[in-house]
Write a structure and sequence with these properties.
It is a single chain. By secondary structure, the protein is of the alpha+beta class. It folds into 2 domains: 127 residues, NADH Oxidase (3-Layer(aba) Sandwich), CATH 3.40.109.10; 175 residues, NADH Oxidase (3-Layer(aba) Sandwich), CATH 3.40.109.10. The chain is built from 9 helices and 9 strands. The protein is globular, with a radius of gyration of 19 Å. The relative contact order is 0.19. This is Nitroreductase family protein.
Length: 326
């Protein structure tokens, strides 16, 4: 492999590490053999209680796969992707090779430029409106990856989503072991860890929006959190649900790719996203949402989209910690 190709492959892996993941667990590892990148699930980073099926872990890994694809296209190569290529190796989620050299894709370069700028938001949004044409673009981005993004227009449906989110959070907060699992991925102020949710990544005293979507309790009784945007974070934003027709491992990986494409496009236009997965981690609530609000499709992510002036930094493990090269 040439030095140029080695650089391309390494940049693609670096991009993958900046994908969003549940509680910033970064549940992936990578192997490079020649010019082939192998994306693997890291079972040690899966949430055993919140995510026993590994659904959220694979959505996270699907987002990482999207970053690899975008990086290769932005660097002038058509990615050759195989998803779940070996049934006898369930941890191997995908392999990607740089294919035919091509003109650098302008759209891919735009989204690739947002990979390290995109941030997960964990509070309310400003009252600045989200443009309707932009929402239509985000819907199209998800559809292009085989998933469906539905902005929730009905006030009643938004209230239902908020209510089940709060109910799930209340129930989960009473489960000591599950709460400890969440706390495991909370980083105290000044922590040098390269994973988990930073103390400055959520508000110290969150303002309630109407309707209110409950946030995770990462501080768990500690006076952690940020004071940024406390007087601006008053809007719920636009609530949206990402769904798929099926609910297999392949669907979860597909959902992750669609989600990341939506997030990067949103970031390119100044939008941030807040995620709410509590209700989707409880089978009966997820099934209720599938039947009553999602037209029988499987909800993979509940999110809020909006504008914020939060510019908190992100944390990631170094590439050397997640990459094995042959």
């Amino acid at each position: 492999m040439t030095e140029k190709m080695a650089s391309v492959v390494r940049r693609a892996v670096r991009a993958a590490t900046w994908a969003p993941s549940v509680h910033n667990t970064q549940p992936w590892s990578f192997g490079v053999d020649g010019d082939e990148i192998a994306l693997r699930a890291d079972s040690d980073r899966r949430l055993r209680l919140c995510d026993p099926s590994g659904r959220e872990s694979l959505i996270s890994c699907g987002a990482a796969l999207m970053n690899v694809r975008l990086a290769l296209r932005a660097l002038g190569y058509e990615p050759r992707v195989r998803v779940l290529p070996d049934p006898d190796r369930p941890a191997l989620l995908a392999t990607v090779r740089p294919g035919v050299a091509m003109m650098a894709d302008v759209e891919a370069r735009l989204l690739y430029g947002e990979v390290e700028r995109r941030r997960t938001h964990r509070a309310g949004f400003t009252r600045l409106p989200v443009p309707e044409p932009l929402l239509e673009v985000l819907v199209a981005e998800a559809g292009g990856e085989g998933a469906r993004l539905t902005p929730v227009r009905s006030e009643v449906a938004v209230r239902v989503l908020a209510a089940v989110t709060c109910a799930a959070q209340d129930v989960q907060s009473q489960d000591r072991l599950l709460s400890l699992e969440v706390v495991r991925w909370a980083r105290p102020p000044g922590s040098s860890r390269g994973d988990g949710v930073p103390a400055e990544g959520y508000p110290r005293v969150p303002r309630r929006t109407r309707p209110h979507f409950a946030q995770r309790d990462y501080a768990h009784g500690h006076p952690w959190g940020s004071d940024a945007d406390q007087f601006l974070s008053v809007s719920t934003g636009v609530v949206a649900v990402l769904t798929t027709k099926g609910d297999s491992r392949q669907d979860w990986i597909m959902a992750g790719q669609a989600l990341q494409r939506v997030l990067l496009r949103a970031s390119a236009h100044g939008l941030s996203a807040a995620f709410h997965t509590q209700a989707l981690e409880m089978f009966h609530l997820r099934e209720f949402l599938r039947q009553e609000l999602c037209s029988q499709e499987y909800p993979q992510m509940i999110m809020r989209l909006g504008i914020t002036f939060d510019d908190s930094g992100g944390v990631r493990r170094p590439v050397t910690e997640v990459l094995e090269e042959r």
